[in-house]
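Justification of resources, computational component.

The compute hours requested in this renewal are based largely on the per-chain cost of generating structure records like the one below. Each record pairs the submitted sequence with a full structure-token output. That output is archived, and it is also reused by downstream analysis tasks.
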Amino acid sequence: MNYRYLALLIFMGVMINSCHIETSEKQLDSFFTRQDSLFVKAYQQRDVAKYDQLMTEFLAKYQNLSPGIQKRYTNDAANAWYNFCCTYSLLNDKKKALDCLKKSIAAGYFDFAHLQSDKDLDNIRKEAEFISVVAPLQKIGDFLYILKKGADYQANDQRELPDFTYQSSDDPNLKELRRAFNLDSVAGSGEELSRIKNLLYWVHNRIPHDGNHNNPIVKNAISMIVECKKDNRGLNCRGLATVLNECYLSMGFKSRFVTCLPKDSLKIDNDCHVINVVFSESLKKWVWMDPTNDAWVSNEKGELLSIEEVRLRLIGNLPLVVNPDANWNHRSHIEITDYLYRYMAKNLYLLECPVNSEYDAETVHPGKKVQYIKLLPLDYFDQLPAKNENGNSVVYKTNNCEKFWQAP
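The structure output for this chain reads:
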């Protein structure tokens, strides 16, 4: 057989298979999204028969998936059983409610605080079976409790770490980013914090958040902005934070994107959240900027806070304020309880930053190694080894909060 023809057939086969996989994933996403909507409707109508029918359809699809694909939809399964539990509880069918609750927990539901406060569960909360089933979840699902247990760092941790670096705004790529999107005009001519906020607004308004799909292969601001516009698509939180970080660097701000991670001692929580920190010369500290939610955080005096300050205030039960116009995709308002006291309390346990804050930091190139530093509380279960190499990344671990948050 002609080798060129064989190569063409192989290429076509790969492309067809790739398209088939992509179509299958889209079909699955569509099914589980639609099913979730129908579950909510049946729950709202207290329609047990309809919910049971929907659950049968759901399980027929879910249980036939391979373990790897099934893992993508474990949250859907856990939430489906949880809402079924709520439905039965509201109808005061305690036995079936508790049975569904156990199945929800077995599928991965572990939000201890919500289980304690959800009024839908009032009819079963005092049941001995409820108490015994839910109590073990405190250690994995009471996020403020876990964060408070992980409060302590060790400033004298002397494990060797590379120095953080920040690319100069004179870099040709950053200069082109600044010129191409007229970022001087975007930032405006106001004082420092005003310019920092204006760049946050711009990225949030220009690119929607899409947490259900991967980011483009080329991960720099110019390429991702162009691709999002061309394909009418969004980015996940990491993509948004990457774009905003490069915008800050192009305007001469020292900045990083920070991956905020849960403790996840059972390795069942695949969620994390990525936000930005910018070093304010006027405040002499890092300040929190979240492009996914168009959000920053202040104390009761209106003073902007850093990630570490927010973390300490959550641990110390001190007041926190989120800007009133914080929002997700201009569709929903950001509620401080869900955003900070549940979601970010969960994800502020571990923190990780690239060592080099620069243009195109995470685009994969042959031979390229991306270095990260991960800040661990002392009670974290996985302190060693001090340095991990995995593929194209190198991760250094430290308990030294001061070195992690050193001024640029």
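The CA atoms of residues 164 and 406 lie 9 Å apart. The chain has two domains: 3-141, 148-404.
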